Structure formats: C-alpha cells, structure tokens
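Handout, section 3.2

Students often ask what a structure token actually looks like in practice. Rather than define it abstractly, here is a full record for S-adenosylmethionine-dependent methyltransferase domain-containing protein. The first block is the sequence as you would receive it.
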Amino acid sequence: MFITPHDKNYSLLDSGNGMKLERFGDVVLIRPEPEAIWMPLDIKLWGNADYTYDRDGKDKWIKKKNAPENWITNYGGINLIIKPTSFKHTGLFPEQLSNWEYFKEKTKGQKNLKVLNLFGYTGAFSVYALSLGHNVTHVDSSQGVNDWLNENCKLNKLDTKNLDGNGSLKIITDDVNVFVKRLIKRGEKFDWIILDPPAFGHGTGKELWKIERDLPDLIDNIGLLLTESPGGIILSGYSAGYSPESYKNILLPFQKLFGGSIKANTMCIKEENSNRLLTLGIVSRFSTK
C-alpha cells in the first residue's frame, strides 16, 4: 500500500460509522467515508468539528457560526484554497500527496517536462508540477474547478507563461476524450500523463463518461501522446470498484513498449493517534526510470 506522507497541515483524526474526522489547517471537518465501516476510537474528538456534512439526503454542510467559508492551507509545500462543496469535497485529495512525491522523485534534476493532467479537478497536482518547473496542460470539464485552479496559481505567485523558464500552465475546460483526440490530431507529445478518472461524469457538451466503457479507449489514445522516451503515467481512481491489479494491467502495454516498471496499490492515510489505515483509492504508477 502507498501510505500518505505526514504533513503538519492535514490530519486524519479519527474515522468510523461511515464517516471520517479530518483537519485541514486549523479547520476540522466530518465527511462521509464508505470505507470506514468500523467504530470511531475517540468519540469526544468529533464534537470539535467546525463543519459536518449532512448525509441524510440534504447534501449540505452544517458549520459552526465562526467557521470560515474558505481558507488557505499549505500542503506538500504549496498553498491551496480549501472550500467545502456540496459534493462533500474540499478542493484537495490529501491521499494524492504520495503521488506528488513519487512524481518529484522520478523527475528530480529535470525541468520543463511536458505534463498532461487529465480530470485535473482544482489542480493541486498541476500547481505542484508547475512549482517544480514543468510545463503543464491541465484538463477538466468544469469551469468552476478550473477557476479554482487559477486562484491557486495566483496564491502561489507562479508564472504560468514560462517567462522565467521555470514552467508553464495551460488550463483547458473541455471533455477529456474530445480534447485528447484533438491533441492527437495536432501531433502533441508529453513526457508524463496524469489521470484520475471518475466512475461516472459529464463533459462540457454533456458527453457521458462511464469508466468501464471509456477508460480502455482513453488509455489507448494517451499512448499516442507520449514522447519517444516518456517519463511515465500515474493512473489513480476512487469509487470505481476496481482493484490495483486491474489498474496495473491496463498500463502493461506501456511497459512492454518502453520498458520500465509498474507499481500498483491502494492509497491510504494513517490516523493521527492510531495505527489504523483508511483506504482512499487505488493507483497504478508506470515509470521508465
């Protein structure tokens, strides 16, 4: 399993009864978590939450009077806007930190690599890769989350146009499948491709995405976008029902073509005051190094 590295600005305080208790910076949240089928260890902690997600059909947050509407926290060395949304998300998936650090390790000593981030959400990975000096193309079908990414870039005072020779960022609001096909026609190539596809979703033109139907074709297509000597691919997922071995198998053609290795496992976060691990998705990492 890939265990999320410790970061002082995030903590999984406790979990259980289908919920998890987390701290983002100084703000404590209670959110639904289907994996947490056990009992909480310290029920007293839960009374300190600033936000509680109401999962009884109302899909909204109950917050303390003085709790902020949004706030800034530094995670993995970058500043990010945290904001509870109606879909229980916050703008950050903390378990992805292990993928960021894997990418940093594999690209050590390199600058201005071309990175394609598909289903990029609010762009924490895009900001992270840009902060390392790479040229990132970020794609998501939601204008709202792309605006959020733009604010995260401003927050970190990052040059998105490579004026200083230390990376660039293109933010694309489009259906991933449509845009990937457009990139193929243009003959564009990338050193790294990052993707975190949902189980189900819609594109900008109401294109329907179903992972069991569409992921195999997308994987075939991104193969046409890799350079002759690529760095790798990071494929992660949540709530799709697949095993790490399935995600490993779908990347095997790249290993056969380019060599290198594939490591696939669950992504977990350790509770702050116990040895319990909470599984928050799966990831398959292909690297030629």
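Discussion prompt for tutorial groups: Residues 2-69 form a domain with the Immunoglobulin-like fold (CATH 2.60.40.1180). How would you have guessed this from the sequence alone?
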